[in-house]
Amino acid sequence: MSFVNDIRAELVRARSYRLTWAIWPLIAFTAAGFNAFAVSAVHSALATGESAADQISSVAFLPGMSSGLTGLFVAILATTLVTADEGSGTTRSLRMVMSDRRIVAARAAVVGLVALAATAITTLVAVLGAATLPTTVALASLGSAQFWGNVVSTVFVHLTWGLLALAFASWWPRAAVSMGGVLAVMLGAPSVEMALHAAQWETGAFAWLPEPLIRAATATGAGAATVMTAPAAVAVLALWCVALAALASAGTNRLRRVPGA
After folding, report:
1. What is the pTM of this model?
2. What is the mean pLDDT of the chain?
3. How far is CA 184 from the centre of its chain?
4. Burial class of residue 54 in the structure, from the number of CB atoms within 10 Å of its CB (0-12 exposed, 13-18 middle, 19+ buried)
5. How confident is the model at residue 223, as a pLDDT?
6. Would you say the C-alpha torsion 165, 167, 172, 173 has a positive or negative sign?
7. Burial call 171-197: b when 16+ CB within 10 Å, e when fewer
8. N or C: less crowded end of the chain, CB within 10 Å?
9. Distance of CA 121 to CAs 154, 177, 246, Å?
10. What are the residues whose beta carbons fall under 8 Å from the beta carbon of 9, sequence distance 6 or more?
11. What is the pLDDT of residues 133-160, one digit of tens each?
């Protein structure tokens, strides 16, 4: 029960941040914007006589279509869980009664709940968008394995964003620094890959970094599906999540040994 109490305490603190309440409408509006364009394209394709089967596949990817931005919102909230506690001195008080492992486990559990909630919102928006399509297309899309597979992928995408932010914030509990690290991994690495590709220097190492895996898992981005299958990408993302949780624990332990931390 102590672990459940740790999570409850973390949730109570998270609910006290105004940012927490701002994140959810941002996720909903972002998902609605992406889905509106996608559903509009499906309507146009059906109106021009294109195959309904092709459009069913397009609808199946709606839940994860906005994950590039909704994941960023999850990361911002995950960063706040650490930086706000560090800034207020709460973490110092927690260390008097809790081990580093318990602190990180509670934070990681809350990040997991946030990832699930964010995915629930994007999935609900996707279902509402699909409901505007012809009944046969909507039912076939929402009942397809692709759709629900994409939902599972989106959970791991949001979780990866959140745990990456948690790891950076645990090592460097400053919001600007930790979010800068997250963006460097998610945006900087793909930029380097593009530069190397332009220089005709090909390497497969980048395919194992979080951002390409996210594109492969949710089948978004040009040629994403050719890099790795979605189930394989999700499996590697799960390994990343485990590694990032371990890094967060190591970072929290390091701060305990830093004088004045």
Report:
1. 0.89
2. 86
3. 15
4. exposed
5. 47
6. positive
7. bbbebeebbebbeebbeebbeebeeee
8. N
9. 11, 29, 28
10. 106
11. 888 888 988 988 889 999 999 999 999 9
